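Give me structure tokens for this 640-residue protein.
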Amino acid sequence: MHSDPDPVHDEPVHDEPVHDDPGYDEPAEPVQNDFVSHVRANLRAHGGDRSFTFISEGASSGGRPFTPSGPGRKYTENELGFADLDRKARVLGCRLEARGLRDRAVLLLYPEGLEFLAAFLGCLYARVVAVPAPLPDLDAGRFGRTRRIIEDADIALILTDTAHRGTLDAWLTAAGLKGRVHCLDTQAGKESDPGTWKPPEFGPGTLAFLQYTSGSTSEPKGVMVTHGNLLGNGEEIKRRIEGTSDTVGVGWVPHYHDMGLVGQFLQPLYLGCRYVFTSPITFIKRPVLWLELITQYRGTITVAPNFGYELALRRITDRQLEGLDLSSLTVVKNGAEPVRAATLEAMAERFAPVGFKPAMWMPCYGMAETTLLVTGAPLGGGPVVRDFDADALTRNRAVAGNGSASVRRLVSSGRPVTLDVRVVDPESRDERPEGRVGEIWVRGGSVAAGYWKSPEQSRATFEARTSSGDGPFLRTGDLGFIADGELYVTGRIKDLIIVNGRNIHAHDIEEAARAAHPSALTGAAFAIDAAIDADLGGGPGSDRPVDGSREQVVIVQEISTRAAAGTPLDELAALIKARVARTFELPAVSVVLAARGTVRRTTSGKMQRRLTREAFLDGEITALGGDLEPGVAELRRAGA
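Here you go.
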């Protein structure tokens, strides 16, 4: 980890890493050199007075009723104290050790709840490599992804609960995996004596778990997260949020996503603090429950992707505000790609009467490849929002938007605590000065060990060096720039749309489309260059009438037909098309109107533009209306 404590210079070019100057000092040396020892110290210190609390729908045996303010709603509160968690983890650790699974990968397929947490910690205790993943029975399309993980990680054992053991056994049989892959119900069987557990030998480099990426831009890859990574990132988060054992977390992000696993489950173990959570599905059914939990348990920190806050804005009624009190919050993290300024402002205004303050906002940036957190706004400072000249940004320059004809409003993702963050030209690998857009590179103890069984890809991604030889760095694949020490993320390299020599981010096009009419919801923008995209069959010699001399921009735009208020859909598509074409001076724009849920997303809500593009070309998107350029409809592949 870079340990140069010099502050950020005011010069436009910085050879030193960017740090959060006011609070920066040397990375703290953890007392333990492995995550299990650190966690067990906290479990012993707070075993009797700290817990994880899960709120589920309906009544269940063994739990206490939790009654929110809404009538007719029944929830159950189930609690797992730190002492009991440690005991359950030691019991499972003994069972896994007896199976000879040390340093082998084991797949964890659980519903949201307390059983997953005990299983994950049990894997750590046994020095077994945990691989959390979503239950495939929640979505038939996930079975294929689950099978790819099984093959990639050489899985021989799946851990699950009693309720899902039968379903998974049946699926393994149907998939031809029965006999090679076995299921273990961690709620059944003879319980081992927890006193017989003995900690294996750990070190900072010991592999803790594989975090399979969500696949927003590519096939899922297994990120190798070590004990040292967990300690390093745990300290980064602790110092950024100023967390203590008195911190109370509240959330709903799923445990198989890095934000949920590291930020909401492992961070409370690192701090020795309480955490209260519900499932994503329960949250989506009734978003106000999230705020009711903050009110009831006096939550001090919560985190969610941007779409969670937008759902709360859209679905929580004025009547549901009665009885809410959000004044206990000190940190509200927004870790979306990107964070929308309009969402931050709308939340602050909408929930101000119940104690929400703008200073609570902590926009942040991170990814599985850095364990989780890279940068975040300093505690209590609120978001930094600035206008930049939109045309200059297309030419990779960040210039203040004062008086510009077109501006792009960006929210800063804050500053790193100790990590070394650079902006680098992705082609020449020259470091970019402040105010110039380039690829974001990261170095430090939070950066993972690489991709599982992918040495070449690991070298290319995790061992990058600048043109001057400085490194190794992680290449994030994200574009951004630094201004006044703040990191601004502008998009992903793979989502760039290049038109007439200008770099236009897909997100900017989507924002312009969304602003064209109140009925416009989520949209996905992508390019189709028929002249060079061989899989479209639109190149030289093709009989398809698309204009291959220019890049075609397509927007799959979800709409609310109710909000369209009688506006003809073809007229609405033309309105969106005109707005986008005018804003970005695009010669060829096609708009497809579709129902809510059409745009492909990952399990954590990140947009999958590539998969949406493929669905469009394969004819899998049902159009409610549209305005297409000549020949674009014919680009859909045979069988559409």
